[in-house]
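Lab notebook, bench 4. Still working through the backlog of constructs that have no structural model yet. Next entry is a single chain of 452 residues. Request: give me the structure tokens for it.
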Amino acid sequence: MQKIKGKRLFLYNLSTTGWVLLDSIWLTFAIAFLLPPKERVAEGMVPFVSNERFFGVITVLGAVILFGRIIDAIADPLVAFWSDCSTSRFGRRRFFLIIGGLPLAISTVLIFFPPVAHTSFINGIYLAIVFGFYFFFFTIYVVPYLALIPELGHNEKTRIGITTAQGYFSLIGSAVVMIGGPFLLTLFMHGTDYVGSYQKMVICLAIPGAILLYAAVFAIDEKRFSNTTSSKVSLIDSLKKTLRNKAFIIYLFANISLWFLFNIVRSSAIPIVITLMGTNEAFAGNMFTILFIIAAICFPVVGFLVRIRGKKIIMIISLGLFSIFSIFLSLTGLTPVNPRIWGLIFVGLMGLPAAVLIIIPNVILSELCDVDYKKTGERREAMYFGVQGFFMKLNLGFSTASLALLYSIFGKDISNPLGVRLTLVLGSIIALLGLVVMTRYPEKKIEELLSK
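Model written out:
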């Protein structure tokens, strides 16, 4: 077994930019595109789905995304099992990267091409199908990709190096969308052709995203850089063993609560700048430029803090800070401070917890995979990442559905932005619950098992 380094390691990490870029496209722009504020509708944008609530609690868009997330969640343990047990000559992880990349990029673009140019039930059915395909192929690619982290990184130092590099590349992917997206929207805007400008922007972003997905395919030769063998454990037994790991469940709840809040902030970016800051979509680029710069600066700081304080306490601090900053962000426009300056300050402060979110969780999970291997002699890395993905996708689905519901009940317009504020408060409450749970994580016990 050889140690992966240099150009090959760079190319493997580079593919992070590809899948984060594609994921950020719909997370950042789908809600604003499919269900625009009434002020944008008056200027020429088209609401493609109804904003009405059914059974008092769910909107069309919330139901569509939740349906896709359920498909995604079901696919996670299945894809993980298929990958762990794969005997493909291309490698048990690499094979899935090959077949998942292109369909993932195509389905991302299709989200922004509803068949009917007005509010229609047909659009709801179409989007449910497209989101189902998108989330399935996202799982096909990302679960095996992340499962390579503990296989290629043979110790904590190497894994922190890999996840830190992936953190930088994920910031690049997010920045391309969140900074470049608004710029392209402005560039392609002709009169009031909002729909056409969004569609051109998505295509321009999706093409490099698709190309970058295949960098890892050419970089990774699992026979050279990984000594793992195909798992012989059945799907049900593998799931049971994973879910019985108490340390994993504690870590999982804390991680998904942090992602719940981050998804709220990311998905609310356009409504925040329009309704709370009183500016246009292009300002979101300025907001996230500051977030990404501070997060990038904080990456080596996070690595240093982990070495001297441990991963557990850094996760706890991150959950607390993210909650506090989100509460203050929800107050944008209610203080004497200029709302643009206020918003930029607290989005920028989110850079530190965002850096922790990107780096630390996959290092913790890789350690838990190693502990499981030492106890059982079985290599089931993908199943751990798959089960995490199962709950993560349900979590993200509920966060987006909650966002859509709060927008529908309390408002998402400049004249009535209470729903936008309350989504940030809800995300903060969930993150604080994760903080409490993370205090129970048995970090010392895990370190003792690894040291043996």
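Notes after review: The chain has a mean pLDDT of 82. The beta strands are 53-54, 58-59. Flag for follow-up if needed.
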